[in-house]
Predict the 3D structure of the following.
Amino acid sequence: MNTSEARTGGRLRLYGPGDVDHLDPAASYRGSAGPVITLFARQLFTYPPETNLSNWQAIDPIPDLAAGIPSTYNAGLGASHRCYIVHLRPGVFWDTTPPREVTADDVARGIKRLCAPILRSAALPYFTSTIRGMEQFRADYAATNPRTAADHAAFQNSHDIAGLLVIDDKTVVFELTRPALDFVNILALLCASPAPVEYDSIVPGSAEFPHQVRSNGPYRPVHWVPGKELRLARNPVWRQETDPSRQQVPDTIEIIRGEVSVDRTVHTIADGSADLPWGLVLAERQGGPPGPPDHGLGYALNPYLVFNLHGSRAGAAVHQPQVRQAISYTIDKAAIAEIFAGLGAVTRIAGSIIPPGNSAHQDIDPYATPGGRGDPEKGRALLVQAGYPDGLTLTAVYPETDLHTGIARSYAADLGKTGLTVRLVALDPDDYGELLRDPRRVRAQDWDICTAAWSPDWFHGNGRVFLQPMFSSGSSGNYGSYRDPVVDELISQALASVEEPARADAAWRQAEDRILADAAIVPILFQTPALPPLRGRRVHGAAVMPTLDYAFDLSSLRLG
Amino acid sequence: MTQSATSSDRIGQAPGVPPPERLREASWGTIRKLFALEPGSIHLNTGTIGAMPHAVLDTNDRVTREWNGSMRDVYPPGMYTEHRAAIGRSFGVDEDEMVICHNATEGVARIIHGLDLHDGDEVVTTTHECYSVLSNFNLVRNRHGLTIRTITLPTGYHVRAGDILELFERAITPRTKVLAFAAITLFTGTRLPLRRLCELAQRHGLITIVDGALLPGMLNCNLRATGVDFLSGSGSKFQCGPLGTGLIYLRNKIFPEYNSLPLPTFWPVISTWYPMIGSTPPRTRTGVASYNIGDYVQSAGSASIARGAALAKACELWDLIGRDRIERRIMNLAEYARQRLVEAFGESALFSPGSDPALRSPLIAFNPFRDAADAWNIKKYMAFVDRLESEHRIWTRWTEFDVPGSPHQHFAARVCTHIFNTFDEIDHAVKVMVRLAADMS
């Protein structure tokens, strides 16, 4: 069947190990449910569905719930660039009974929910370092130690963020601590979605959220089996003329979750039992290794090795820079690249933190080894210098999937060549995600090393998207609790130098140099998905969303 | 014929309008009849766009028709030689120092990009400059590594000129090369101490760029005596020429009593007649020009002969009425408006200076609402200005600006007075604004 025979309607079926439970936008950052959340939770700004990723418009925000992009030309942005005035688009409704229009109060509620101490969104530093008074709001919120939904609502409704002004039902003003040219990109993150007043009755991010979803997008959840199944159907109050980004093509979108292998997922799609993979970024099989992408979008850092550097573990071996440097030299990155090749990903050996294609990237590798194959002898020598001539044992945790099991075994074998024993601990993928976000688990010395991935949240002028969330002291994206006041200061300098991009880039690079010298992490691979993503035979009209890990825009898919 | 503004255009022809030689003594009621004002409306927004006199409209129309389909050479009249000489005389400068351009934005852009600035050089300017000033400096920053140091001007009734001078002086560093500021700020209507700032700049060896968009037609100003190096002005605001007209002043000779510094290196970007091989002569070190730099800037392909002629006509009218007289009238009306606004809303409502006469201008920015916090509620100002226009046919505008020490972007209602306004109009407008603001408060 060709594209012209594809039609509106039908049941779009997704299958795979992705998330069907964590649907609260405020808690969604870096979750795999993003492509579904965007169907029922719209943002002030978003990105257009674009099939040609070499078109710069694919990464340029457009108004979503906002009526326009604030600029000096529409009086939405003052000359100081510290005041954004956002007018809401009229005619966008929640699917409440009766339908109720989205308001500026909903925008403020969405931003406030992001500060709920229970969430610890890794995106929070973007906001708290930018919106005036939001850091204070966050700190005050956390100090109340809220337990119940009523506690959360009470705080949110009795406290304001100083730089977030609700002018009237349709106007909200964001006052910034300093100019931020990426502020529209920040507001385009899913976690900045407005929240209706009904969410006051839910603890942010709680398990009951999927039952309480209110939609202002083209779809809404109608059926949910925790951990297993999610079905969305068309939202009757959504109107195409108020939404420049999404469509409402399939009748229903059905996700079946299964902890399955890559091969099983591919087979399921190939035999027509499902239309798209869920929670796996897979490329269409092309009969050979994928070539370089034909777009200039920045790569992700995926994977990298995280060291547990929490202050409570000061005696742990990984607290010694020489141990971390030994590990940096030892890992055979090329072997891990071969594992990813099976997914169709485009990979490069990583020597730095900020991947190519992103602002402030530098082509450096202070721990380079020939072919990225690792140098166990050098690693062993450094371990001896560090006082471990007889080796040591480290605990590594990993999510129990085919992919991550392969990665963990690969680097554990590498480290074994230096006399370093790695005790591998497999975790349920959901538990693994919770572990990375939960500082109590970090403090509990549950682990020494693990792997993580970080992809750019936006693709233009994105100097902050790696170093700020990954290495700012206290950031929940700083999985290993790395803490260096000099790095914090360099990050602040970079953010304060927006008017002079060269100075900002220099500060980012200094910070990166320092983090690498400290071997705070081990960059392993830069990676970008090979395109197009894998899809079933009856799927047509597919546009991908680079900011959501190149997932398809589910709302526009036509089924043949 | 190469110049097309004749004094016969409608002056003295309309009923009740005196002949040109009588304009100097004509009453303001009579002079008001020169203008093509919309009946039943009150125009208090000359800071955005003025109202053209009938004679200016007629000149624009007549010259457009004269040159339409003409076989004559359009380039010589596009140099506006006679117009530049006449307009220059009105501002105390020569033809080689005066250029007719398309607007103040173009003028300031051509000045900024013509400067010989390099990586590490600094510019001191203010956050209250027009976007076109700040955006062009930002472009140079991105292109050449310039550093821009901005100061936020104080606002309010009791601001003193000394406060402003001190801010500028403190911002100057050994790397500063340029002092750039508005003659009258468009957001709060603060008339900056032009001569004193130029003297400050000269003491530090700095180039001065003045955004004089609001100056022509408002102030009776000898540009040479200010000591400024570069100034751009609008032809369509207080000068009441056609839209799409502006003026550039470039200091092209040295008069030590005003500015003894060497002439700055200047590159006339956008120039037909800049040499295709070789360069211009060295700049003069005396009161005699070494070359006509105005010609290099003026020559930019074909020009609108009609708009140049119409602007010259507007300037001619101003000279006939008397620029000194015009300035006094504008300021008298402004003083009256300021007094009425203070009576209506209180001194604290004004963002424009009042107590220091040197800083007063005919642009007055204020918060008409009871709550001071409404000053950062853009919607109220939008609605206020819209309702003044739609319900009362009073044309004003709202402005936005930073206030030192405040995290908020402030907004204000702004009125401007011009010679075609009357005291009765001001009374009526203030009464309406009081009622409307009370209704909206």
